[in-house]
Amino acid sequence: MTSYEGSCLCGAMRYRFDAEPAAYGCCHCRSCRKASGGAFAANIAVPAASFRLLKGAEFLKRFESSPNKFRCFCSNCGSPLFAHVGESPSFLRVRLGSLDSEFSTPPVCHFFTGEKADWFEITDDRPEFPAWPSPDILALRGSRQDGS
Q1: Which residues, 6 or more positions from 90, have their beta carbon under 8 angstroms from its beta carbon?
Q2: Which residues lie below 8 Å from residue 4, measured CB to CB, with a gap of 6+?
Q3: What's the pLDDT score for residue 139?
Q4: What integer pLDDT is reported at residue 148 of this predicted model?
Q5: With b meaning 16 or more CB within 10 Å and e meaning fewer, what string describes 101-118?
Q6: Is the per-residue pLDDT at 109 higher than 80?
Q7: In terms of Cα–Cα distance, which of 18, 43, 54 is closest to 96?
Q8: Mind spelling out the 3-state secondary structure of the chain?
Q9: What mean pLDDT is predicted for residues 137-142?
Q10: What percent of the chain has pLDDT over 90?
Q11: Pseudo-torsion of CA 34, 30, 62, 98, nearest 10°?
């Protein structure tokens, strides 16, 4: 089993998960763009049971960005680290940008391109979906797509 570690920008928070990440895509929805401060968000589904905060639990803050969806971040530097749907999530959606470990797997697709930033051009040949991708292309565990 592979281990991955990550942290926030200021280093106050560190985490580890021991799981092989599932396939992922780039989400261009307005909410993810606002939460990331970029053109899209890249999040990987990680079983919650494999995720451990190693340092900085006192800095963990949650924001309910939509009903029952919680975005978790460092209260010291504001770095987004992960999100979950529901109070007892079985999967967390970890922000790839917060990983410190090497990770070279490319995304499967782009989704919510119907809300894509006008100033960003998608230049790869990965499939694009105006809303949720078809689950047979990309199953997004721990998201509203799968209802968990």
Answers
A1: 47, 48, 49, 142, 148
A2: 16, 17, 21, 99, 101, 103
A3: 82
A4: 44
A5: eeeeeebbbbbbbebbee
A6: yes
A7: 43
A8: CCEEEEECCCCCCEEEEECCCCCCCEECCHHHHHHHCCCCEEEEEEEHHHEEEEECHHHEEEEEEECCEEEEEECCCCCEEEEEECCCCCEEEEEHHHECCCCCCCCCCEECHHHCCCCCCCCCCCCEECCCCCCCCCCCCCCCCCCC
A9: 81
A10: 79
A11: -60
Is the overall model pTM greater than 0.70, yes or no? yes
Best CA proximity match to 76, nearest among 9, 140, 126: 9
CA separation for the pair 106, 44 (Å, rounded): 11
Tell me the domains of the chain and their CATH numbers: 3-129 (2.170.150.70)
Residues 6+ apart with CB under 8 A from 129: 109, 110, 111, 112, 113, 137
Q: Phi and psi dihedrals of 110, rounded to 5?
A: -115, 135
- The overall average pLDDT reported for the chain is 92
